[in-house]
């Protein structure tokens, strides 16, 4: 951006220079990660030793990595489904409230999203001492549900607005029960938003590290597994896995943003 402005004879403002520098600072490590995932040398160093895909094959044949991916997929899918049910139910419930306390209840529901992950993980870790029968996986699902359900609630509530309540009343006047009104009015109105919110929650829960690291024991998720590999040694498999995770995350986020920002009209 700054280079194009200089070529045109325009002096870039300090803000443009700072923004360009920050973006470059964030993207350069990602670029290095992607490039060296194809390097034949075991160590990320120059000169270039050749191009290979062997590190991707090695990563996908690593039983520990595959087990972590399966664990992440199972827990993330469960968290996504739970957040969609609870978040949308809360949005529909508050939308139907005929009291000035609706905004207060909405703020209370959104509070867990504002709590630092370290504090939430520490609280659930301490609570597990009094409930030892609860498995670490259940604790993680509960933690992720508390954190990401408000996101679904906010998206659904903002999309519905007061018009949805009026359409629901019209449907009930025409003979629909409250359940039928939700099925025939709210779900068609929020189907696209629910899909986008579900993908967004899936990505956030998939990449979440702090709560996973604090609450899980043996069956760790992929981010925790990658962290353990980095502590043990420098392996090109980390670059390969990181590139795959980055590609999948960006793809899912792109689809989610398209669904959430698309105009129905």
What global shape is seen?
globular
State the distance separating the first and last CA atoms. Answer: 34 Å
How much helix, percentage-wise, in residues? over 70%
Number of strands: 0
Q: Determine the strand fraction and express it as a percent band.
A: under 5%
Question: How are the secondary structure elements laid out?
Answer:
Layout: H1 2-7, H2 14-36, H3 54-60, H4 63-95, H5 102-114, H6 117-127, H7 136-173, H8 178-207, H9 210-215, H10 222-232, H11 236-261
Helix pairs in contact: 2-11, 3-11, 4-5, 4-7, 4-8, 5-7, 7-8, 8-11
Description:
This protein is mainly α. It has 2 domains: 2-54; 57-261, MetI-like (MetI-like fold, Orthogonal Bundle), CATH 1.10.3720. Helices cover 77% and strands 0% of the residues. The protein is built from 11 helices and no strands. The protein has helices spanning 2-7, 14-36, 54-60, 63-95, 102-114, 117-127, 136-173, 178-207, 210-215, 222-232, 236-261. The longest helix has 38 residues, at 136-173. It starts with a helix and ends with a helix. The model has no long low-confidence stretch (mean pLDDT 80).
């Amino acid at each position: 951006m700054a280079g194009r402005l200089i070529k045109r004879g325009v002096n870039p403002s300090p803000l443009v220079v700072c923004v360009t520098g920050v973006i470059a600072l964030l993207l350069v490590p990602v670029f290095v990660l992607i490039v060296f995932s194809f390097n034949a040398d075991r160590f990320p160093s120059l000169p270039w030793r050749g191009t290979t895909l062997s590190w991707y094959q090695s990563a996908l044949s690593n039983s520990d990595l595959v087990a972590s991916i399966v664990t992440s997929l199972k827990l993330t899918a469960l968290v996504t489904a739970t957040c969609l049910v609870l978040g949308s139910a809360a949005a529909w419930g508050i939308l139907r409230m005929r009291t000035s306390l609706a905004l207060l209840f909405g703020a209370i529901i959104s509070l867990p999203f504002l709590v630092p992950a370290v504090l939430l993980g520490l609280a659930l870790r301490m609570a597990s001492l009094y409930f030892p029968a609860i498995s670490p996986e259940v604790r993680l699902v509960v933690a992720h549900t508390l954190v990401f359900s408000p996101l679904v609630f906010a998206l659904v509530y903002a999309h519905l607005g007061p018009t949805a309540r009026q359409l629901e009343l019209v449907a009930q006047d025409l003979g629909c029960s409250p359940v039928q009104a939700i099925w025939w009015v709210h779900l068609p109105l929020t189907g696209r938003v629910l899909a986008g919110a579900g993908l967004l929650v899936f990505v956030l829960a998939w990449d979440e590290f702090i709560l996973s690291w604090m609450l899980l024991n043996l069956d760790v998720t992929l981010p925790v597994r990658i962290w353990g590999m980095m502590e043990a040694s420098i392996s090109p498999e980390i670059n390969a896995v990181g590139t795959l995770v980055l590609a999948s995350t960006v793809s899912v986020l792109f689809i989610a943003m398209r669904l959430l920002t698309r105009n129905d009209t």
